[in-house]
Design a protein that fits this description.
The chain is mainly α. It has helices at 18-32, 36-49, 54-66, 70-81, 88-100, 104-117, 122-134, 138-151, 156-168, 172-185, 190-197, 208-216, 223-239, 243-261, 265-278, 306-314, 327-339, 352-365, 383-393, 406-414, 428-448, 458-463, 465-475, 497-502, 514-517, 522-530; strands at residues 295-300, 319-321, 375-378, 398-403, 453-457. It starts with 17 loop residues before the first helix and ends in a 9-residue tail after the last helix.
Length: 539
């Protein structure tokens, strides 16, 4: 989204106190030199003397936002809008921080108001489109982004966002067109290349390899852009069958990713162990065993077939696919704050009434996904950690654990730029450890809740789609519907870009890559075996 611009502050914001005026001048100097922490410190003193001064509040809102304190920014933006309710930049700033707090619908309201206040301001329409896309209002998002581009054809961020929206919705020709237009206007645009690489190798043209090589050589490029370009380079090398150089390119990308992400493998392992330990004891029995049957949770590692399973379920007339929603994490975070005890340490202290309350909170947060259909899927990639809490809150819910060949899973994660939440993907050893924890915990869920957790192997689904899909529907207590077999024809937004492309190609049996990399994955195989994971070629 568009960062909130630096506020244009007057030299004299009408502060009656000489001390407040002096502190404000100091804050302005610090802010203009982008020392936001120092500016916020001075502004705290200003607002202690003049708590309702709108100019100081506006600057404090932006400083707080730049420091990542979005809750504080929201409070200051809201107070400032009481004085300047028709300032579109305040509405945009408020919307940006609400988005960062996962308050997407509230953010959309603010961006809509900004567009109403400044209908010719392309950035407002871009921000609205981005917010709508994140909440899966795909068609509305496309309309808003097209409006931004009508106002400003050179708005590359809006064009990239529109390309991603078309990808999510399965309109791949339109997506290619927009990504190509970005690259026509800016041949070195990292996001343009990266987005194009998610589509199909047929999207690449003669000469792309040379253009990409020049983009990689551009001096002064930010590390995150260079990281994405290395991923694209690796995909092009794979397309050429040059797997040795492709692996080197993936390594270069992930070395940059490790610097950006700072993954803590020990903390990740301890959390998985803590969740397992918390559920070793007895969980209070629910009074209504059917409560929460609306929810179907898909739990998996990334790149393991979870989007495919969700697409199959979302092709059923009774099921809405909600993608990777964060509602469960929001409920657990709120309970953690309420109890002042970190998750999962409070699990043994939760009683039947607590679990029921949490279940109602979750269903309230997810109510929009049941407006037209009675049931919905939640495929957050944290669900393998949250399955026990989900079934304690919602005893009528179902959990489908989707697992793929361990070597293929770890390699697939290594081949994707997954973002800061999945830093394990930047190192094959970390990916192996994460997979080991995933398997240990999900085997526990299957053993503890055998009638509510289904084990689904991706390779079996691909090899025996009809029988596996029927078993899946039966487990979810859904009548068979032929649309689930023709899932690739279902029109809906899929938030994961690579998955949005793959699921519309039908059931694919050509996604395995490990054999192409041979002994370069031997250390990965050894690590998995040491963790007790049986591999396909083991006796």
């Amino acid at each position: 989204m568009t960062p909130t611009p630096d506020p244009g502050v007057a030299a004299d914001p009408r502060l009656s106190s000489p001390t407040a005026a002096r502190l404000f001048r100091q804050a302005t100097t610090e802010f203009n030199q982008r020392r936001f922490a120092n500016a916020a410190h001075a502004l705290t003193s200003v607002l202690a003397l003049a708590p309702d001064n709108p100019t100081a509040l506006k600057m404090m809102a932006v400083a707080s936002q730049r420091l990542g304190n979005h809750a504080g920014a929201v409070e200051c933006f809201l107070r400032t809008t009481r004085t300047w309710p028709e300032d579109p930049m305040l509405r945009i700033g408020l919307g940006v921080s609400l988005t960062e707090l996962d308050r997407g619908d509230e953010a959309i309201e603010q961006f809509r108001l900004a567009c109403k206040l400044a209908p010719t301001f392309a950035d407002a329409w871009y921000d609205l489109g981005e917010a709508l896309a994140r909440q899966s209002y795909t068609q509305e998002a496309a309309t808003a982004l097209q409006k931004a581009l009508a106002l400003s054809p050179d708005h590359l961020l809006a064009r990239l966002s529109l390309a991603r929206v078309w990808t999510n919705f399965g309109q791949l020709d339109e997506a290619v067109k927009e990504f190509r237009e970005v690259l026509r206007r800016d041949p070195g645009n990292a996001e343009g290349w990266f987005g194009l690489s998610y589509l199909n190798t047929d999207c690449f043209e003669p000469g792309d390899f040379e253009l990409l090589a020049r983009a990689l050589e551009r001096p002064g490029r930010p590390a995150d852009e260079q990281e994405r370009l290395w991923f694209v380079q690796a995909k092009l090398l794979e397309m050429r069958g040059d797997y040795i150089r492709a692996f080197d390119a993936f390594r270069a990308a992930n070395e940059l990713g490790r610097k950006r992400v700072r993954w803590n493998p020990a903390a990740a392992h301890e959390r998985a162990q803590a969740v397992l330990g918390a559920f070793q004891g007895t969980i209070p029995s629910p009074s209504d065993t059917e409560f929460g049957r609306e929810a179907i949770f898909v739990a998996s590692m990334p790149r393991s077939g979870s989007s495919l399973v969700e697409q199959i379920l979302a092709s059923h007339p009774d099921v809405e696919g909600a993608n990777e929603i964060k509602s469960m994490a929001q409920v657990l975070e709120a309970e953690t704050r309420r109890r002042r005890s970190l998750f999962p340490s409070w699990i043994p202290d939760a009683g039947a009434q607590d679990w029921s309350r949490l279940g109602h909170e979750y269903l309230t947060l997810t109510s929009r996904w049941r407006e037209t259909k009675p049931r919905f899927t939640d495929k957050s990639l944290a669900n393998w950690l949250f399955a026990g809490t989900a079934l304690s809150m919602l005893p009528g819910a179902r959990v489908i654990v989707v697992r793929r060949d361990p070597v293929e899973t770890c390699l697939a994660c290594y081949r994707q730029c997954l973002g800061s939440m999945y830093g394990f993907a930047c190192d094959l050893a970390d990916a192996a450890d994460y997979y080991i924890d995933f398997m240990r915990l999900t085997r526990f869920w299957i053993q503890k809740y055998p009638d509510r957790v289904m084990d689904l192997e991706y390779e079996t689904l691909v090899a025996e789609p009809d029988a596996t899909i029927r078993r899946l529907l039966d487990f979810c207590d859904l009548p068979f519907d032929p649309a689930c077999l023709a899932f690739h024809k279902t029109r809906r937004a899929v938030q994961s870009l690579p998955s949005a492309v793959q699921i519309r190609q039908g059931m694919r049996s050509d996604t395995a890559r490990a054999a192409c990399y041979g002994d370069q994955l031997d250390a990965l195989r050894a690590r998995l075996r040491a963790g007790g994971i049986q591999l396909a070629d083991d006796p």
